[in-house]
Design goal:
This protein is of the alpha+beta class and 107 residues long. The protein contains three helices and four strands; from the N terminus they run αβααβββ. 29% of the residues lie in helices and 26% in strands. Strand 2 and strand 3 form a beta hairpin. The longest helix is centred in the first third of the chain and has 15 residues. The mean pLDDT is 96.
């Protein structure tokens, strides 16, 4: 893994543990609050990254299962105005991270 990917991966690990901007799809927001909290905990502790599900080594996507339902999470990188892709996802000074969590069947 190159140094840029390592830095992005570390920032994404930190973000998953204490997310800032997070979008939850209707399938997630329909869950009881305690289940949403449980799902967030699964995402925060996810470590099953492999070359197949993380080919760039940025740890920005994963799939977890809760109560027999599969969920995806994805972290995207925006510029500070949130209009375009970040010019440098490895630099938190120019990047806003947004995580989307959805039921797999909502994809």
């Amino acid at each position: 893994m190159n140094q840029t990917a390592e830095k992005i991966a570390a920032l994404n690990d930190q973000f998953r543990r204490c997310p800032g901007k997070c979008c939850l799809t209707p399938g997630v927001t329909a869950l009881p609050p305690a289940r949403v909290a449980g799902l967030l905990a699964l995402v925060a502790t996810f470590r099953a990254f492999t070359p197949e599900n993380d080919p760039y080594g940025e740890r920005d996507f994963g799939a977890v299962e809760m109560d027999g339902t599969r969920y995806f999470f994805k972290i995207d990188y925006y510029d500070l105005a949130m209009e375009f892709h970040s010019p440098d996802p490895a630099d938190p000074a120019v990047t806003v991270r947004v995580m989307t969590i959805m039921r797999a069947d909502e994809y």
